[in-house]
């Protein structure tokens, strides 16, 4: 059997300790491999080395990687980083043109990729208007159209709703049956037990394949919580409101929201769920004056569109789905210094230093923020926003890309901030079981409307 051979592989960023050291590993081809490990351990780095992106574009490496002729491509944790064209159709066509695919095979590959990732309705939409989950599906479709041998997938389903995740993971198993090789990193282990052939775990700068017994133990610990056991309370309609929607319409390339009346309550945490692309992030963008709306949105009794943005945004802040969109400076320390200028008094220098240690970010202060791992970026992003003085925070997928321990740390910080500072949280997430204890209420987004629901998901 052909294998992907890593021989005494080491990698580091200039002046930094090795992230990977003397790694020797053989990964079987025509197989499905799952790569696991804590946030920041080096999973993305290893995938980029196998993809040939490192050390070409960053870092220093030694040792050898032999793909034995396999054609490879990588899907990034943030798919926006790999798009160059305006629409999904143009993106796939651009990739095929770069490979000099002739017209005879061109249409066949395009149609197969569209059907595989189920993106028929997305083809001619602007990529910038797609949800995070929709972008991930487009990125996967592009790789499928390229007809590569080796798929390197870095947290590819971090922003995908559960139904779509289950569908796409099972589609990946079809690729394996077609002779493709898949190496995928993920923190959420649902749906993998019956599909992956082997599991590789990062441990102290190296990677080890789990024995069959350890693999069984891993998945046994990951028994998913039955969402039917989760129930949310319904709000007291007499409670103080922070937002009220009346005859509200939000549209981008189509109508997303048609809300007759909805109240969002002050000093509470509300979880918002719904399928990818339904309009959850667009709602947040309307609430933070990024995109316009029709009808009425009232903030504490005042019409939102009449409020001056600068003054209003001292009270309301959005935590973006993509952490890179939040950063304004170069290093971690620069970002902290900027946030400290407009911080809540609760977050003293001593308190911030304590939190940096808890999040394992204290040794990265002089690091360029964009060179952090996806999970490290997410932890830094949330810390920066919790430090801020705004009393209303809109979190868009705050747990995406975080390992189990990091999820616990972030939820602890959010809970402390809510309780100590009496903040209002609106939270978009597909990780319902993790957020159930933090959230008071649940809003289901479906059929152009938001409505309070006691159960996690409704059709």
List keywords for this structure.
2 domains, globular, Rossmann fold, 6-stranded mixed sheet, alpha/beta
Topology record:
Blueprint: E1 3-12, E2 20-28, E3 32-36, H1 43-50, E4 60-66, E5 72-75, H2 88-98, H3 103-117, H4 132-145, E6 150-154, H5 162-177, E7 181-185, E8 198-203, E9 206-209, H6 212-221, E10 241-251, E11 255-265, E12 269-273, H7 280-287, E13 294-299, E14 302-303, H8 309-312, E15 316-319, H9 332-340, H10 349-358, H11 374-387, E16 392-396, H12 404-421, E17 424-428, H13 432-435, E18 441-446, E19 449-452
Parallel strand pairs: 3-7, 3-8, 5-6, 6-7, 12-17, 12-18, 15-16, 16-17
Antiparallel strand pairs: 1-2, 1-4, 8-9, 10-11, 10-13, 13-14, 18-19
Total domain modules:
2
CATH superfamily of the largest domain: P-loop containing nucleotide triphosphate hydrolases
Give unreliable regions as ranges: none
What's the Cα radius of gyration?
Answer: 23 Å
Number of strands: 19
Q: Write down the CATH class of the largest domain.
A: Alpha Beta
Overall residue-averaged pLDDT value: 91
- CATH domain topology of the largest domain: Rossmann fold
- Share of helix among residues? 25-40%
Biggest sheet: strands, sense, closure?
Answer: 6 strands, mixed
What structural class do you assign from the helix and strand content? alpha/beta
Strand content: 15-25%
| Strand order, sheet with most strands | 5-6-7-3-8-9
How does the overall form come out from the CA principal axes? Answer: globular
CATH architecture of the largest domain: 3-Layer(aba) Sandwich
């Amino acid at each position: 059997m052909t294998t992907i051979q890593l021989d005494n592989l080491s990698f580091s960023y200039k002046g930094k300790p090795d992230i990977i050291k003397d790694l020797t590993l053989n990964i079987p081809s025509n197989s499905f491999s799952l790569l696991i490990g804590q946030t920041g351990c080096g999973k993305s780095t290893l995938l980029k080395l196998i993809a040939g992106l490192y050390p070409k574009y960053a870092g220093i490496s030694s040792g050898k990687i032999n793909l034995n002729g396999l054609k490879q491509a990588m899907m990034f944790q943030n798919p926006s980083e790999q798009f160059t064209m305006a629409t999904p159709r143009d993106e796939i066509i651009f990739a095929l043109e770069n490979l000099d695919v002739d017209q005879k095979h061109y249409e066949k590959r395009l149609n197969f990729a569209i059907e595989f990732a189920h993106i028929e309705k997305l083809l001619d939409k602007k990529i910038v208007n797609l949800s995070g989950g929709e972008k991930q599906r487009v990125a996967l479709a592009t790789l499928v159209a390229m007809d590569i041998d080796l798929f390197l997938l870095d947290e590819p389903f971090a922003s995908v709703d559960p139904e779509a995740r289950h569908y796409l993971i099972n589609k990946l198993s079809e690729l394996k049956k077609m002779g493709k090789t898949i190496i995928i990193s993920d923190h959420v282990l649902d749906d993998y037990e019956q599909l992956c052939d082997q599991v590789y775990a990062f441990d102290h700068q190296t990677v080890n394949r789990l024995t069959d017994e350890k693999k069984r133990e891993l998945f046994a610990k990951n028994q998913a919580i039955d969402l039917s056991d989760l129930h949310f309370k319904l709000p007291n309609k007499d409670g103080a409101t922070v937002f009220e929607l009346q005859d509200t319409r939000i549209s981008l390339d189509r109508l997303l929201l048609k809300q007759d009346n909805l109240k969002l309550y002050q000093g509470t945490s509300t979880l918002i769920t719904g399928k990818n692309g339904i309009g959850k992030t667009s709602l947040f963008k309307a609430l933070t004056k990024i995109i316009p709306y029709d009808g009425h949105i009232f903030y504490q009794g005042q019409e939102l569109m009449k409020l001056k943005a600068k003054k209003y945004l001292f009270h309301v802040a959005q935590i973006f789905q993509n952490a890179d969109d939040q950063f304004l400076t170069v290093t971690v320390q620069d970002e902290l210094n900027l946030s400290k200028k407009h911080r809540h008094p609760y977050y003293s220098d001593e308190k911030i230093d304590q939190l940096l240690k808890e999040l394992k970010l204290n040794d990265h202060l002089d690091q360029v923020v964009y060179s952090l791992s996806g999970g490290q970026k997410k932890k830094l992003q949330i810390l920066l926003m919790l430090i801020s003085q705004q009393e209303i925070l809109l979190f868009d997928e705050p747990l995406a890309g975080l390992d189990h321990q990091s999820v616990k740390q972030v939820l602890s910080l959010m809970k402390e901030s809510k309780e100590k500072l009496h903040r209002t949280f609106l939270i978009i997430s597909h990780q319902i079981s993790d957020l159930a204890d933090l959230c008071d209420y649940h809003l289901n987004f479906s059929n152009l409307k938001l409505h309070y629901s006691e159960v996690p998901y409704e059709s």
